[in-house]
Amino acid sequence: QVQLVESGGGVVQRGGSLRLSCAASGFTFNNYGMHWVRQAPGKGLQWMAFIQYDESKKYYADSVKGRFTVSRDNSRNTLYLQMNSLRLEDTAVYFCAKDHPDWGFDYWGPGALVTVSS
Amino acid sequence: QSALTQPRSVSGSPGQSVTISCTGTSSDVGGYNYVSWYQQHPGKAPKFMIYDVSKRPSGVPDRFSGSKSGNSASLTISGLQAEDEADYYCCSYAGSYTFVVFGGGTKLTVL
Q1: Which residues of B1-111 form beta strands (DSSP E)?
Q2: How is residue B4 annotated by DSSP?
């Protein structure tokens, strides 16, 4: 069965950096695009980034463009999100999600909490 | 403010039907048949419920249905059950610049 598990969350100071990982299993990772979606405490879902299966295309939300970088290692079945210049408003649970072949996010990880402190 | 507009809350009694609306623009909901819906219980990851406006992934009960008219999409849940109580989010493809937009979420209460 498909499993996605995020890691690398934690507490970081404003202006700092953090890298999240998402370990994938149960499907052919290098055949699918992947997304990062976040959810601030008590708030709704916010899409962050997408990476094509072969890294040929990457898209970002305006709020993180230039600060966050999505990448993947298909040999390790792992997705990454490098987060730099972190702001207080980046505090959220970060989910990785698999791209459905038609459209949508068909599988999600349990999420990793990132807390940016002042 | 979210790109797609959803009611903050809806409610219904067991066995009844409820509909959750999701209003966007011609640049997202109205421009593509790529609307999806997600169910999220407290403290859990979202669950994929509807894709391509009205298609159900395997395992999702046929009590859940989706539709679209113009710039608005809807999720209808019939035969409400206690376990349907959750937050629901709509989502749409929004072109190669914005790419993805979510609604603000709707809290469904089963009375």
Answers
A1: 9-12, 18-23, 35-40, 47-50, 64-69, 72-77, 86-93, 100-102, 106-110
A2: B
Report which residue type is found at B36.
Answer: S
A39-76 pLDDT, tens digit each: 999 999 999 999 999 999 999 999 999 999 999 999 99
B14-31: b (≥16 Cβ within 10 Å) or e: eeeebebbbbbeebbbbe
Whether pLDDT at B111 is above 90: yes
User: Residue type at A65?
Assistant: K
A106: pLDDT strictly greater than 80: yes
Which of A:23-62 have CB within 8 Å of B? 35, 37, 44-47, 50, 59, 61
Nearest to B100 among A47, A106, A109 (CB): A47
Which tokens hold the place of A108? 């999600």
- pLDDT surpassing 60 at residue B1: no
Between the alpha carbon of residue B85 and those of residues A111, B17, B60, the distances in Å are 21, 13, 15
Residue B2 above 70 pLDDT?
no
* A95 CB neighbour count, 10 Å cutoff: 24
**Residue B95 host element (H or E):** helix B95-98
Is-contact A19 A81, C-beta < 8 A?
yes
B102 and B3 in contact (C-beta within 8 Å)? Answer: yes
Joined together, the tokens standing for residue A96 give 């990785």
- How large is the average pLDDT for residues B13-17? 97
